[in-house]
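so my prof wants the structure for this chain in the tokens format not the other one, which i didnt know existed until like an hour ago. anyway here's the sequence
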Amino acid sequence: MGALSARLPVPWTTADIPDQSGRLALITGANSGLGLETARALMARGATVLMACRSLERAEAAQRQLEGERAQPAAGASPGELMPLALDLADLASVTKAAEQVTERWGRLDLLINNAGVMAPPRTLSAQGFELQLAVNHLGHFALTQQLLPLLEGRPGARVVHVSSGAAYFGRIAWGDLQGERRYDAWAAYGQSKLANVMTALELQQRLSADGSTVQSLVAHPGLARTNLQPTSVAARGSRLEAMAYRLMDPLFQSAAMGALPQLYAATAPEADPQTFHGPGGFANLKGHPGACRPVPAARNAADCQRLWQVSAELCGR
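here's what i got, hopefully its the right format
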């Protein structure tokens, strides 16, 4: 992956997003947090945004919220449209249904931003019996990407952006216990799923390049950003210690709008690099404007990336 952490020469903001008029973007988890901010920014620059969410009602509420902001569009661009789309990443049948709907209705796609995620819940199983974090953060997005890639092919500037986390640095793939059946640690499972995002991004880029594809696969992380992931995790686990830790760490967190900048950069900046882990360029890559973060060591093993791809394809029936 790319060079050691470095801030861009001039801080990159949403004002630097090129005109997205006529482009179609699908964002998973677009009803809140990073996904909502990403939808807001792309809509303001003219993109039509498919807000792919587990709850259609919440997607529609977010749509109404963002549409209320259209009176103040970004300079030089007419705001785009927002389209709610039902998608439950914890159910591969729902993933297939959503992909079929996009194919039938639009037949094209310019940006796929795999943003949705769950963080450190008690051990829970998906509809297909997979550990929930692996299912939502990795396998659901893996299956969605495979089914939507044909719509991206041939589209100018088409990209898939995988949203990972700084937890990828501490992640390990438990090859002998992927589903945490023998031993489940919520944070280890989260790190595994976020490492899987980085490995998948790199392996997909390898495969796209080998096939002569025009699509690019990139990866980004938000640093420490205030989203609903933290309170949801605390509520699910009932951990007073974690709640206290988040309160003490609060000064280190940045807004969801700032946290969304690296994935927006990866999705739209002409100079974004598929080999770079895009994230905040500030101290320890915790916050700040987009920059290049240090590579994730465990993701640099090409054989492991290929192995994860094969295992994921088998689990998803691809």
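also thought this was worth mentioning. Residues 6-313 form a domain with the Rossmann fold fold (CATH 3.40.50.720).
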